[in-house]
Amino acid sequence: MHLRVRHRALFAIAALVALIGAALVAAQLRGSAEHGSGKVGKFSSRELETYSQGVENGGPGGEAAEALTASRQWQEARTAPGIVAPGAYGAAFAALSALPTTGGSWSDVTRVKYDADDITYRDYFSNSSGGAGKWVTGRVTGLAADADGTVYAAGADGGVWRSTTGGGNWVPIADAIPTLSSGALELDANGALWYATGEANTGGTSYVGNGVYRLTNPKTGSFTIADRVGGAELESTTINSIRFTADRAWVATLRGVYWHSRTTNAGAWTASLIPNPDFMPGGSKASDPNAPYKNIVNDLAIDPRNANHIVAAVGWRSGDTYNGFYETTNGGTTWTKVNPTGAINPKDIGNVSFAFAADGSKLYVMNQSPQLLNKLTGTVNSYLDGIYVSNSGSPSGPWSKIAESQKLANSGSALKQSVGGKGYGPGIQSWYNQFLIVDPADAKHVFAGLEEVYETTDGGSTWRTVGPYWNFYFPCWAPDAVYPESGVGNRCPLTTHPDQHSVAIGKRNGVPTVFVGNDGGVYSRPVNGTVNGNGNATDWTTLNDGTMDALQYYAVDAGKVNPANDHTPPAPAGSESVLISGGLQDNGGSILQPGPGAKMSSNFGGDGGDVLVDPNDGCNIVQEYVVLAMRVTNKCARQDTLDAFLDQSKANTRDIAPPDINARFIAPFVASDDDIDNWLAGGNSVWFQDKGFAIPGNTPTSTGWTKVKTWATPDKVTTALGYEGDTAIAAWCGPCNNAGFARGLAVGKQTASGWTWSDKALDPNVFPNRYVAGAAVDGSTIYAVLNGFSRRFTEGPGAGIGHVFRSTDGGTTWTNIDGNFPDIPANSIETLAGGGLVVGTDLGVLYRPAGATDWQRLGTNFPVTVAIDVELGPDNKLYVATHGRGIWRIDSPVAPAAAPATSTTSTTSGTATSGTTTSGTTTSDTTASGTTTSGTAPNGNHGGNGNHGENGNHGGKRK
């Protein structure tokens, strides 16, 4: 998702260990599973799901709640009253393009196979053996396929990729345009490929685009700026879908329905349906906090029997008076809100997907329920209202319900309530991930995507879960399973990665094939495929062969290969000297071994987050799950026995999370630039520990952390940390949503007796009231970088009036050092020896040499994507985590500084020694720094809960 939150195997296995204990071994688990007992070892599947879906945040249903939280948080990093006007994106990109370029060429180090099922790393905190297979990549939000075996896939923020082999051997074909954020991908009747930019999922990590592009020769060509259709009308927004009539292309956007001629790129897009025009850019209510939610169009469907009859699904996921089905019967000249009849409730229409049968005889719809989403009491098992069919093909109906969450759960789902427990049933993320498509050869054959993939061949009378969420609850699962096995012996067949976003039907090797895109990449199977007795498909193929790098990282770090650590992965002689670790959206933590043909594996499960690596030993790693759930390993998380999958005492990873009450989804932690053993971590409080990677695992009486700073109120959360010597900077926001947004920072001083902190009032005439995304300390100078502007919904006041700030007096006064810095959100800052600065932005990496006032683009060959974390490795190379195109690196433009202090962590012991943490001083705010934007809170769930945030948690970890 978006930012997706997931407690999959991470806590499933944790629950097994916690309640079963070390006595349960792999053989016991395999034995009970093979006999179909409905239990996994001595642990019921219901209990397993309860723990796997929210043990850290309130029990059952925690994952769904966190997914919504994550969505709102990422939004908050770029929100405040107002909406981005068309043209703002183009102006920012033009300013970026005009900068001079310095340095060498970037290299993509993660364009390799990513093994999410590596048994070498299958321990207590692993997500391996779930069934999605060895090879995965990032979220795929657009798919198109033809009858000749060519497939096109669009990464969420990774651009367009082409395969001429029916999947695999992918080549990027959109890297020359100003955005890689992907909303939709479609082939028209003439074979032209249309790319609608701006990811429209209402998830957390979606970014705006700059319009629609048309490639007339997609089998051999690549997109260029000249391929943009129309002008700036669709810039700085998102696009849900693109559809075609004989002479027009139609798009469903965040700001209504538009059309354009299919035969020319010239001329502006024509607005056809704008439900609430006063809330549009330039409108009288454009500054209303709810403005971004007033013109959302989720999908379009064109009647195959009458091209002038077009149906639109309109509305915000949390409900609004304008929500509903709209139709035009005169080609878009006028639109009418439909009053649907039959089983569907016209007052409960939210996020919707449409699908016509090829002959127009049936119209199917999948509908998410705002009423369920807004339910404030009790446990909601799903936000799906249902799947319906209109057997007349009319949006007026009458509609018949052919599926709801319980019916889908009973179709062979891994999310069945009686198995998994209440709180995470089919459709719990229907506000975020949906697809719906009808087999063009059979009006009753339908594929539906939610968290899982479902199929009906009889118009909805019966369903089967052809792509279950995972295999953990099925009798065929065993802890030593390796996928794909295609049902070998009594093992489960390969399934898809969870969270479905896109679908296409074409041909692969001449066979009609359905392609699905999800948070793990692209999978395919024959349209008329085979299933096992549980209704699960036995013929999925993963198309993620490592040539498509659409991986969505939150963070990166690197450490040297240490031959003295007996768990260091093998590396070819003469290869690079570092191990590279990263935290990924919905794909755990990754570790990349050095050398030609480098192997990359997942060594932490669930979602990845922030990362910290010992520069002297790359097997000393801290990975964050989410919300400051920190895990440490001193052995690269490589397991010594398969029992480590079940028994935490045998795992080489341990839980070291601080006991915080409220942290950002991706929360910051940092080591001192001068002493790798001194760490800070930030949530509602700032925490300190000085044992480095030898910090002991959590016990009932100790976590190893000391609370050294607490923000004034529980809704304030740390957004960024910087730390060097005896000085630290901690930034916060709270509330973090657009209504009432407030932010501030404090500067800490470390002494022999502990920490003291000084809260800083920030002059709004100098320091904009926007999200502080990154921070760094360089001697007596501190830096802060600000986000805001190009989030798909809103921009903050002050976009264009400051992104990079410096203070030389401990944070009392600040200077804007933007100079020629383009109006682009900044995410991360790294200081280099001598005073050089590197900043990661939403459109790439910028560099300012020491003593200079102007910024340059750093390096060539870097994709126009989100550079979310910039870190300097021990090999004097800069590493950048992108949120859509993997990890990239380049030689640092300056000579290295002195090496950081050597870690005291043991690299041969399986567990760290116990110890106490130096005491600190806890302080609290007396006043809230900064100014608060006036306005009323948005209705429903528009503005988020104001308690969390997400983006921008990185500063320089060391020089």
CATH class of the domain at 138-542: Mainly Beta
Largest sheet: 5 strands, mixed
Classification by helices and strands = mainly beta
Q: Helical proportion?
A: under 10%
Please mark out the parts with pLDDT under 50 across 5 or more consecutive residues, or reply none. Answer: 1-64, 74-82, 789-798, 903-959
Number-wise, the strands total 60
Number of helices: 8
Q: Report the CATH architecture of the domain at 138-542.
A: 7 Propeller
Based on CA atoms alone, the radius of gyration comes out at 26 Å
Basic shape: globular
Q: Give me the CATH superfamily of the domain at 138-542.
A: YVTN repeat-like/Quinoprotein amine dehydrogenase
Neighbour order of strands in the largest sheet = 3-57-56-55-54
Kindly estimate the percentage of residues that lie in beta strands according to DSSP: 25-35%
Terminal-residue CA separation: 33 Å
Q: Mean pLDDT, nearest integer?
A: 84
CATH topology of the domain at 138-542: Methylamine Dehydrogenase, Chain H
